[in-house]
Give the backbone structure.
Amino acid sequence: QVQLVESGGGLVQPGGSLRLSCVFSGSIFNLYRMAWYRQAPGKPRDLVAGISISGSTNYADSVKGRFTISRDNAKKMVYLQMNSLKPEDTAVYYCNAEGTFITTMSYWGQGTQVTVSS
């Protein structure tokens, strides 16, 4: 069973930076596409950034140029470097792993709170 544990959230001032980390366990990391999602109060959970098995990345328009997703296959980790943070980035950030075998399996972490406020 895949398990994901996020860390690195917290309170940061506008314009500041944070790096989120997600550790993967329970399966073969290299077989999973990884992504970060976020959910603000009263809003749906939206994709922030994704990284494929081969390392190709995609980003939500709202974070392009400010956020960078990366993965370390040896350490089974995925990261989200967040720069130039804005109050509208405030949300719970979730790590997601998705693998397609016979069926598509999707797993979630418990989430980490990011608050951008002065």
Remarks:
- The chain has a mean pLDDT of 96.
- Residues 32 and 99 are 5 Å apart (CA to CA).
- The radius of gyration is 14 Å.
